[in-house]
Write a structure and sequence with these properties.
The protein has about 500 residues and is of the alpha/beta class. Helices cover about 35% and strands about 25% of the residues. It has two domains: about 300 residues, Zn peptidases (Aminopeptidase); about 150 residues, Glucose Oxidase, domain 1 (3-Layer(bba) Sandwich). It starts with a helix and ends with a helix. It binds zinc ion (ZN). The site of zinc ion has 5 residues, from helix 7.
Length: about 500
């Protein structure tokens, strides 16, 4: 008797669940029209948008297109101006100086040979050398008018973040020279090429003066030895000429869909994807346009699809959809958003990012990363409902988790994952298209991409409707940041 009842109950329960699942999934499928989605993807990755490079009018056209799709599907605008979806991201393009030198003792380092420009204003900066051997002694060190010299990678004195550099400036230092000494991982030529090329960073023209910061090459250790013997006191001179900073006009696109649950609606699930790519680059034959269909036209279209679906069928939690700019320039759009969120970050309980290099098969999706947060089961369920499998990070040595926008949210404590197309390895199946001009619409398997889009929406729906809070798995690298953000007790 009992057994039978249990069986019947189990039967009813299972039937109900499977009925439920197919009902939700068929609603998603009937809402997301394949041809309509295809047309978004074709537009965003067309040659006419010229690879959507940050700072170009074509990227801003793509952004406007996204904003107006968000409007069409009824998202609440969360942009800077009333009624709009665009959040201005303050980006500066920094063009390195045509001339720069650093004179230390009898040695003159030159940008043409052995000096790398990190940052700093034009001018001549002269002052006594302060050789910093131990950061912990900083508080008792007088830095006024001094040029700080450190050895990169020095276990006691290596500066590891921008706040430490700003701190030196606050304490009165007028320059920072870091010595690229023995035992460094990369050849100097590669380092110099990177440092002495133009790049973009967050910031505004006319804000506080930036401390001159230079790297000098001393891989033979000659200079380090001299520094250790002679120490501080001698005069150093830094000269920077003709470095240029230009403001870049670029935007995140942000919209919101209110949740339906009276309590859970105060919690927000973020769906995001970067919509920029790397533009047009010469030297690749006739086709010089990097269309970025996989990276990240597909992700961007995934956001439009999500806007359409959740606009019609809101979830219990509120959803914020963000198309991010300047990911390819160093996660600038997501870093800016997490510094300037449109809804307080402590109310944002999860971030579900889409970013793709390519795909290695059409049977799976990749969850980057599994066993990081407690939502894995929903991604498995969503994938299964469209007939796809799930794999975790197969190439952890590459550090992919830390190389896309999810990490900007994670660093602030918001549990975040990257919902990727299958990536079983970084082999020719990926490298053929990754940051190549032939990452084009014509070379993608649209049937697979459609399943991937659908499972992205379904994952977001399951997470947003969950009666429990998405969170970091205990012991995760970012759990502590999460505890701090949400003020949880340990
Ligand atoms: Zn990307």
């Amino acid at each position: 008797m009992i057994k039978l009842t249990k069986l019947v109950l189990l039967f009813v329960f299972t039937t109900l669940i499977s009925f439920n699942i197919s009902a939700q999934m068929s609603t998603i499928k009937s809402t997301i029209d394949k041809i309509e989605a295809e047309s978004h993807l074709r537009f965003l990755t067309a040659d006419e948008l010229r690879g959507r490079n940050t700072g170009t009018i074509e990227l801003n056209i793509a952004g406007r297109y996204l904003a107006e799709q968000f409007r069409k599907y009824g998202l609440d605008p969360l942009g800077d101006k009333k009624g709009d979806y665009t959040q201005k991201v303050n980006i500066i393009e920094s063009i390195p100086p045509s001339k720069a030198t650093a004179s230390l003792y009898d040695k003159v380092f030159d940008i043409k040979l052995d000096l790398g420009y990190f940052d700093g204003e034009n001018g001549v900066f002269e002052g006594p050398i302060m050789y910093l051997e131990d950061l912990s002694e900083l508080e008792t060190t007088d830095l006024k008018g001094k040029i700080v010299v450190t050895v990169l990678g020095d276990p006691l004195a290596a500066l590891t973040n921008i706040d430490q550099v700003k701190n030196l400036q606050k304490m009165g230092a007028i320059g920072l020279i870091e010595i690229y000494g023995k035992g460094q991982k990369f050849p100097w030529s590669a380092v110099a090429q990177y440092l002495n090329s133009k790049k973009m960073k967050l910031g505004e023209i006319g804000s506080a003066k930036v401390l001159p910061r230079l790297w000098v090459n001393d891989t033979t250790d000659v200079f380090v030895k001299k520094l250790k013997n002679t120490g501080s006191g001698a005069t150093a001179t830094i000269k920077i000429e003709n470095s240029i900073k230009k403001p870049i006009e670029s935007y995140n696109i942000v919209g919101k869909i209110d949740g339906t649950d009276p309590v859970l609606k105060d919690e927000y699930v973020i769906m995001c994807a970067h919509y920029d790519h790397i533009g047009v680059q010469s030297g690749k034959g006739l086709d010089s346009i990097y269309n970025g269909t996989r990276d990240n036209g597909i992700g961007t279209t995934g956001l439009i699809n999500a806007a359409k679906y959740f606009g019609l069928y809101p979830a219990k939690r509120s959803i914020i959809i963000i198309a991010l700019t300047a990911e390819e320039k160093g996660l600038l759009g997501s870093t800016f958003y997490t510094e300037n969120p449109k809804v307080p970050l402590e109310k944002s309980v999860f971030a579900l990012n889409i970013d793709n290099s390519g795909y290695t098969d059409v049977e799976n999706i990749t969850l980057l990363d599994t066993a990081r947060t407690n939502i894995d089961k929903f991604v498995y369920q969503a994938a299964k409902e469209v007939g796809l499998g799930v794999m975790g990070d197969r190439i952890p040595s590459e550090g992919y988790y830390e190389r896309s926008d999810q990490v900007s949210f994670a660093k602030k404590g918001v549990p975040a994952i990257n919902f990727k197309m299958s990536m079983a390895a970084f082999d020719e199946r990926i490298s053929t298209y990754y940051h190549q001009p032939n990452d084009e619409f014509d070379s993608v398997d649209l049937d697979y991409v459609y399943k991937y889009w659908i499972s992205y929406i379904r994952s977001a729906e399951l997470i947003s409707n969950w009666d429990q809070r998405p969170y970091w798995i205990p012991g995760d690298k970012f759990e502590e940041a999460g505890n701090k953000l949400y003020k949880k007790k340990q």
